[in-house]
Amino acid sequence: MSSQAHELSIAQLTAVMEDFTRMSIRLPAVHRLSFTTLSVLHTLSSGGPKRLSELTAGEQVTQPAITQIVRNLERYGLVRRQPDPSDGRAVLVHITAAGAAVVDGRRAERMAHLAELAERLTRAERDAIAAALPALARLVELNERRID
Amino acid sequence: MSSQAHELSIAQLTAVMEDFTRMSIRLPAVHRLSFTTLSVLHTLSSGGPKRLSELTAGEQVTQPAITQIVRNLERYGLVRRQPDPSDGRAVLVHITAAGAAVVDGRRAERMAHLAELAERLTRAERDAIAAALPALARLVELNERRID
DNA sequence: GGAAACTATATAAGTCTCTTATATAAGTTG
DNA sequence: CAACTTATATAAGAGACTTATATAGTTTCC
């Protein structure tokens, strides 16, 4: 408790996090998929195949909702279900190439948007952000470890 | 086009933005309000009273949805509607003390969460983030100017 | 100055995305 | 082997949004 983040303003970091969230959410969606649906795709894209129960644990929705969402994604050809060989009850959900394309498409939009904004920052500002990225990524990593 | 952000990796910044969004969304909600509803409250809290049409412009939903959301918030006592003196058609929506308390409550949760994570960063990591916050805030500001 | 066009919001009905409740099947534990 | 737990599916219902449309006020144009 003596290792106090006295230079880092948590209030400012929180504000930036909130603003980043709103920036992210407000980019217009190309595909008419719900936020949870896109989040599931993103999770599969970055974390590899997962069980329905694992997907449920990572989203703020109920288990039947995840079942429905994955059924929908399967219908659109964005994911593929496969029985889990280690558990007769379970299903492993894999993202398909089409699903990965959806995730990549959105990321490309965000990257283009951020690149445009970043160009209007000063060199010093860009350097400061670049220097902080590994630490910000660590923050996220700590958060993920906390959840899992 | 020669002022290239060669030290700032847009891919990494995008990834952090996406992860921040997911961190933010995944904090369990105390109030059972939709994401859009909370976003409207947040907008009123930080930007002051706004017209329904202004709120519509800032969210990814239709005008009737905003009308319904604001009606709901009014019923909960979280906002207050007031005719716009400069336009007989328009309504100005003000956040109430109860509404501000909802926004502040969520922010406090996020701050507590981030503070806990930040404590587990090294001093150098916290310093790097602190140094980057003004630049990140500028990025957000540039984005807001782009929308308005 | 009045008609046409535009803007702001409200309402109704419908759709989609989620919820709760519950069922079934498979795995684990004692 | 029975009881309990876990994994997922299904059905019905509710909430949050949509589209369609209406009404009222403002602005523009002739």
From TrEMBL, chains A, B:
<feature type="domain" description="HTH marR-type">
    <location>
        <begin position="1"/>
        <end position="138"/>
    </location>
</feature>
<dbReference type="Pfam" id="PF01047">
    <property type="entry name" value="MarR"/>
</dbReference>
<dbReference type="InterPro" id="IPR000835">
    <property type="entry name" value="HTH_MarR-typ"/>
</dbReference>
<dbReference type="InterPro" id="IPR052526">
    <property type="entry name" value="HTH-type_Bedaq_tolerance"/>
</dbReference>
<dbReference type="InterPro" id="IPR036390">
    <property type="entry name" value="WH_DNA-bd_sf"/>
</dbReference>
<dbReference type="GO" id="GO:0003700">
    <property type="term" value="F:DNA-binding transcription factor activity"/>
</dbReference>
<protein>
    <recommendedName>
        <fullName>HTH marR-type domain-containing protein</fullName>
    </recommendedName>
</protein>
<dbReference type="InterPro" id="IPR036388">
    <property type="entry name" value="WH-like_DNA-bd_sf"/>
</dbReference>
